[in-house]
Design goal:
2 domains; 8 helices; mainly alpha; single chain
């Protein structure tokens, strides 16, 4: 049997830290449930997760921390706006669809220099006024992202090594 080199890392300690730290508020807020105030599917998943965690009689430390974070994030939501978002009202559904389609087309333009055939086909099925709204929102998003990149480049000039 060959001598196996032993690592200098305290693997047990590191593993125990990873399981006791629990979820990050930043990740839950900005990644997993980032569009909970505008996307009914995300809002529904967010609320269902709170309900699920509340129903657990003996929560782990991880689950308790996650529930605490989700409840604090829920305090930032307006109940009437959430009810409207979940109501399946045609106007709300229309606004959310246009926003989602505009974000998708803006990402495609920024990453591929053009809107994909599938996205454009979807846009062309809209009424003329919705097509115009989607196109305008797409351009607004592209402009905003370009401005943020320029601001970031300006700020990074003052930072050594950036």
């Amino acid at each position: 049997m060959k001598n196996q080199k032993q690592t200098k890392l305290n693997v047990e300690k590191l593993l125990s830290l990873s399981t006791t730290q629990g979820p990050s508020k930043w990740a839950l807020d900005n990644v997993k449930y980032n569009d909970r105030a505008t996307n009914p599917e995300t809002l529904l998943a967010f609320l269902q997760r709170i309900k699920e965690l509340e129903s657990i009689k003996k929560r782990t430390d991880f689950e308790s921390k996650e529930l605490e974070i989700l409840n604090s994030l829920a305090e930032d939501l307006d109940e009437e706006e959430c009810a409207q978002l979940l109501s399946n009202d045609d106007e709300v559904v229309q606004q959310n669809f246009i926003e989602s389609l505009a974000r998708k087309s803006a990402l495609e333009v920024l990453t591929n220099d053009k809107v994909s055939f599938e996205t454009m086909e979807m846009m062309c099925k809209l009424s003329p006024s919705d097509f115009i709204l989607t196109s305008k929102r797409t351009q607004d998003l592209i402009n905003s992202i370009h401005e943020l990149v320029i601001q970031g480049e300006t700020l990074s000039r003052d930072i050594g090594g950036a």
